[in-house]
Amino acid sequence: MSATKNNSSLTKALRGLTWARLQRAMRLGLRSLWLHRLRSLLTVLGIVFGVCSVIAMLAIGEGASYEAQEQIKSLGSQNIIIRSVKPPDDQKVSNQGSRVLQYGVTYMDARRITTTIPGVTVMLPARNIRDYVWNISRRVDCELVGTVPWYPTMRNHRVASGRFFTENDMAGQSSVCVLGAEMVPLLFPLESPVGKHVRVGGSYYQVIGIMEARGHDTKTDDAAAPKDKPTAYRMFVPLETVKMRYGEVLMRRRSGSFEAERVELHELTVKVASLEAVTGVADAIKTVMERNHKKKDYQIDVPLEMLRRAERTKQIFNIVLGSIAAISLLVGGIGIMNIMLASVTERTREIGIRRALGARRRDIIVQFLVETVMLSGIGGLLGVLLGVTIPFIVSHTAGMKTIITLWSPLLAFSISALVGVIFGIYPAIRAANMDPVEALRHE
Amino acid sequence: MSSPIVKFDTVRKTYQMGPVTVEALRGVSFDIAAGDYVSIMGPSGCGKSTLLNLLGCLDRPSAGHYLLGGQDVSGMDDDALSSVRGARLGFIFQSYNLIQQLTVVENIEIPLYYQDRPEAECRELACKLAKRVGLEHRLDHKPFELSGGQQQRVAIARALVNDPLVILADEPTGNLDSSSGVEIMKIFDELHAQGKTLILVTHDPSVGKRAHRTIRLRDGHLESDVRHEK
Fold it and tell me: Which residues of A touch B87 (CB under 8 A)?
């Protein structure tokens, strides 16, 4: 019976609410909150931190996943990348003797994939060689990428200035190169490198273009490749030129031992005709490669799958974040309810006076409910301000990218106001259901 | 004499205190005419407070009828009773019962607040009444900055602000020193002279005697109803 009474008085309270009345109730509530400033502030801290952490974490998470997704997308979502990997068990053998080690993706593999698997449109072979690039006395430890003219279009990596090499450069095995943007300031700090020459080993290459900067390329692009810094510096040279200059066998001297390896292709990018076919083609390539390689001396990366994985990770992240937010807002709400119950008891006499002077139950409900909602609303507002500031500070100090989506502060704020309503109803009803006579007698 | 403004017709009030039923009022009947000045007296436990609560529409009689200004309020629901309290009754309490965080003028406004009157009108009326009880210089003071007599005057202004049918006072001088008490009683006399209907609950005979009529209660019954000739 009392429950139905509560319900009816609550609905009545909301029905009889005029704007003027609400305004007055809000003014009254603000004053009462201001009267107990410290208490109000402490009460609301739970909501403040809840809202603030949601917005800040969402912004940081969103920024991180955006960066990751951009990097994966830059690999091309229709591409499948096969990389040569040095098989781990062979490493020991190579240290013992100086025999030529052969592994990795071969030209044969490339031919097999194009001929046997339908849906493959373009192939992009690449040979990566570590070497020093010189401009007179300046030196950069860099990765020479021997590749084909359609590299920029397939890898979504545009040329910033100058041009990429052409079929003619390939056919003529000409000594031209395109520099990665990252290494330009190191080699040519003062002038534009286009048209100048750089030296690698004993031969000179003319710089014909500069690629766009790729941000933190190494993070995802070369997840399995050597993680040393030099991979960030890349120089693109026609594949035929690399073949001519370096041959098939690479010699390297490292800490006294002699190392020779024979790798035909370091990287093979396959472009699939349509997005839907990517998974199928990837499986087919896996089968082809497994059949022809006894050892696992290759690695297949499918950017599309990586993208999907990243999206799933983000979803899980959001769920975890959502539950943390829900818990902190729940805790904040309970704190608010606790204080409001105490406040109702403390103000029993005031309630009695107001009731005696003509306040209906609904007036008391509105008074306390408005006060609670304002309390949590102010908390939400503070939380939003703090939550917007923190990502800003993080991105400026830690250099992390943060993205504040419009909906996250809106959502966090409205949830905090909702928390005020939910946890304010019970104390308000309790206040309204007091017997005026008893309340007036209360000391 | 005109029709009574308060009419009690064999009003009973029983309370259930656990297993015990307490009869606070056992059939009380009386009429109070408009402009009357009545004191209700009796020893403690005689049902004075119960009677006051019923008169003030803070409680409903268990049996019998209570007509306030010709309207039967004994069967009204909570909301209707609240409206009656706000529009037709003025309360003055022993312990003033001002809201501590509100200023003098805001305290006076409270009954109007719940009747949805325009704010400017409320403020104007409240200021007028503050002036009437001699507090026009204290409008923005908080209750704790005032003396007891001043606080009680605020309460009187608050009881007058809605132009009530009946003013109910519960031991209005109980917490005051004698000179403040005399001052308050003087205001009551003035109000009576202006034709207000006053009901005073007290156990102080000197206060009771100032009224023109005294109703005495004993054990929930009406013991006597005496009109003083002045």
Answer: 358
Task: State the Cα angle at B163 between B162 and B169, rounded to 5°.
Answer: 90
Q: ipTM of this model?
A: 0.94
User: How far, in whole angstroms, is CA A435 from its chain's centroid?
Assistant: 57
Test the A interface: residue of B114, B121, B201 with most A CBs within 10 Å = B114
Burial grade of A290 (CB within 10 A; 0-12, 13-18, 19 or more)? exposed
Q: Do A356 and B162 touch (CB under 8 A)?
A: no
Give me the residue spans of the domains in chain B: 6-227
Q: Is the whole model's pTM more than 0.90, yes or no? A: no
Burial of A442 (0-12, 13-18, 19+ CB in 10 A): middle
Q: How far apart are CA A393 and CA A149, in angstroms?
A: 43
| Residues of chain B contacting residue A24, judged by C-beta atoms under 8 Å apart | 113, 119
* Nearest to B134, CA basis, from B148, B120, B154: B154
Q: Where are the alpha helices (DSSP H) in A75-176?
A: 88-96, 107-116, 151-154, 167-171
* pLDDT beyond 90 at B142: yes
pLDDT for A324 = 83
How many C-beta atoms surround the C-beta of residue A71 within 10 A? 21
CB atoms B114 and A12 under 8 Å: no
Q: Once rounded to an integer, what is the mean pLDDT over residues A380-390? A: 92
**Rounded Cα gap, residues B58 and B73, in angstroms:** 11
Calculate how close chain B gets to A407, using CA atoms only, in Å.
38
Nearest CA in chain B to A30: B101
Smallest CA-to-CA distance from A348 within A426, A424, A432 is with A432
3-class DSSP state of A395: helix
Band (pLDDT 50/70/90 cuts) for residue B193 is very high
> What are the residue boundaries of the structural domains of chain A, listed by start?
2-69+310-441, 86-296
Phi and psi (nearest 5°) for A105? Answer: -75, 135
Three-state SS for A187-248 is HCCCCCCCCCEEEECCEEEEEEEEECCCCCHHHHHCCCCCCCHHHHCEEEEEHHHHHHHHCC
Q: Which CA distances in Å does A318 have to A59, A186, A305, A356, A442?
A: 11, 41, 20, 51, 49
- B79 contact residues in A (CB cutoff 8 A): 12, 360-362
Across the interface, whether the CB atoms of A436 and B58 are under 8 A apart is answered yes
Tokens of A307: 């993208």
Choose, out of A17, A27, A357, A366, the residue to mutate when testing the contact with B (most B CBs < 10 Å).
Answer: A357
Q: How far is B223 from chain A (nearest CA, A)?
A: 25
pLDDT, one tens digit per residue, over A29-49 is 998 899 889 999 999 998 998
DSSP collapsed to 3 states, chain B:
CCCCCEEEEEEEEEEEECCEEEEEEEEEEEEECCCCEEEEECCCCCCHHHHHHHHCCCCCCCEEEEEECCEECCCCCHHHHHHHHHHHEEEECCCCCCCCCCCHHHHHHHHHHCCCCCHHHHHHHHHHHHHHCCCCCCCCCCHHHCCHHHHHHHHHHHHHCCCCCEEEEECCCCCCCHHHHHHHHHHHHHHHHCCCEEEEECCCHHHHHHCCEEEEEECCEEEEEEECCC
* Chain A residue closest in CA terms to B161: A357
What CA–CA distance (Å, rounded) separates A49 from A332?
Answer: 9
Q: Which fold has domain B6-227?
A: Rossmann fold (3.40.50)
